[in-house]
Amino acid sequence: MVALGILVAFHVIVKRSKRLGLDHKLIADAATWILIGALVGARLVTVLFYDFQTYVAQPLEVFAIWHGGFSSVGGFIGATIVGMWFFRHKRVDVWKYADAIIFGVPIGLAIGRIGCFLIHDHPGTASDFILAVRYPDGETRLDHGLLLSINNFLMALVFALLARKKRPVGTYLAVFGLWYGVVRFILDFYRIGDATYFGLTPAQYVSVLMAVAGAWGIWRLLRNRRAKRGLSTNMDA
Known about the structure:
By secondary structure, the protein is mainly alpha-helical.
């Protein structure tokens, strides 16, 4: 499901870049580097912050990626670093390309999380909530994969609706950061088995940064819009 999610996300991103008049071939070239950055970042965060003692005891397990162990927020970090480097190196507008790329991320994550749900990879706390599922042990629990998949499908739908009108550069980056950051921060309180530091999971710390960055981005966009409206009013007066 992860591979399918990547393919669908890539298709959406290329289609979006064409619509915006961006170099979709450059997007395709960047995709490989960004994917590598995401995988390396996802693995490093898992090794260093989620199960460090296991990997210290069994160092070769670091390379046993077929056993799983990829942090989505680590993937965001790795993809962001590599993506910023790539587009700066190509001397193009980083924010325009980043906004086009993030547009396809929610649908890709939504599909990928279906795979997590099918194997119950991220069990949550026991619950009688309507979206809780019965696990093989007979316990009814929240399933992190299912909840995040639903959340990301909803975000993809909102992005599609927003795209019906022209939006300022940075809109989708800001909305994604705030939305994903807040939802992930809350949901991790209902997730079991993850390492915590001072009561929070590694993902929650990253989620706070994402939410703050997203909120700041939305504030900037709204401020700029008000400034443009004020300028237009003064010119008409």
